[in-house]
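Entry for the shared binder. Reason: the reviewer on the internal report wants the predicted structure included alongside the sequence.
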Amino acid sequence: MQSPDAPAPIDHLPTREGYDRWAEIYDNDPNPLVALEEPHVAALLGPVAGLDVADVGCGTGRHSLALAAAGARVTALDFSAQMLARARAKPGADKVRWMQHDLARPLPLSDASQHRVVCGLVIDHITDLAGLFREFGRIIRPGGFAVVSSFHPALMLRGVQARFTDPASGRETRPASVPNQISDYVMAAIHSGLALDHISEHPVDAALAARVARAEKYIGWPMLLMLRMRRSPAP
C-alpha cells in the first residue's frame, strides 16, 4: 500500500501519445497558460484578414479557428490525430486546411507561401529549435513574421511542465517536454536567419488567478514567453 505521504504517481508519455490522451479534455480543462497566452498572440499578429497563415502545432484549433473567423486563409498542422479530430469537429473548421504532421520533419508547405506563422505553446516539446525556426523562415514570405509562444522555462526549473489528469486513469500525465532555456530560444532564432524583433515574459497576476483558480499558486512567477521573428523584406 502506498504511504499517504508518498508523492502521487505521474505517468510520463511520449509527446504525441500524451496529447492524444489530453485531447478528450483539453478544451474543458481550465488552463491558465492558455488564458494568459491568447491575447498576446492576437496583439503580436495584428490584423490577418486576407493573409495566408500557418498554425504550426495547432492542437484543437483554438488559434486556427479564430484566425479563419478573422478572414485569414489558414493551414493548421499538428501531429496528434486526436487533437486534430477535435479541431475538425468544431464550428468553422471547414474554413481551415488541416494537416497531420510531425514538426521534427520539414513542413509540408511551399517556400515563401505564408504571410504569418503562429506556433502556440509547442516549442517546449521541440529538440531541434533552430531546424524548426529555419522552416518558419523558409515558408514565410519576405516581410512576414512568426509569432511563437512557450511555457516559460522558469516554471520548468520548479518542476512544472505541460500536464493534465488523465480521465481514464485519474493520474497526472506529462507529455515529454524539453528543458529549453530562454537562451536556447534566442540562439535558435539567431541561427535560423530570422530577425528576433520581440521577446517578452509574462507573469501570473491576481486578475488571471481570479479567472483560472489553478494559477493562484504561481502568482508573481513568469508563466509565458513570447517571441516574434521577422523575415527581411525582399531587396
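Summary line for the report: The chain has one domain: 16-230.
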